[in-house]
Amino acid sequence: MSELDLTPTVPEMLAVSETIMTGFMCEPTKTFKAFAELVEIFARDQAAVARKGDPSNDLRVIAFASAMMAGRWERPTVLRRDADGRIGDGVHRGIAYLRCIDDRAEPSQLPQLLLAPLGSWQWPPGLKELVQAAGAS
Fold this sequence. Notes:
Number of helices: 5
Structural class: alpha+beta
Mean pLDDT: 90
Number of domains: 1
Strand content: 5-15%
Helix content: 25-40%
Largest sheet: 4 strands, mixed
Number of strands: 4
Distance between the termini: 29 Å
Radius of gyration: 15 Å
C-alpha cells in the first residue's frame, strides 16, 4: 500500500466510524463500537482498569494522547479498515486522537488522520466468526 492509497479524514468522521471492538475495558455490551463510544468508555473505565490490571494494554491511550498533545507524534495516524469498513488497526491511536480533540487541541496541532482502503486490515482466522457468534452486530 502506498501513501496514494490513504485518504485524509477529519475528527468528526472518525468519531462516528465503527471499529471491530465489541467488549472494551469494563464495558459488558458486545456490539461493535464507534470511536465516540470508545472514548466515553475509556473515560469512564480507565481508573478501574488501572486498579484491576490492564492485560489488553488499553491504557496506552494515555501515552499516545500525551505524545500527540506534546507534538512528539511524528507520523500520520493511519487507520486500517476491514472489508466492511470497520477500523481494525489504529483503534487506540484513534481514541487518543479524539481525547486530544476533547481536550481542545486543534486538528492542525495533531498528526494527520488517514484512512487506509477497505480490506487493508484482515481479521485473524476465525475471530470475526467468533465475535459474531457472541452476538456482535
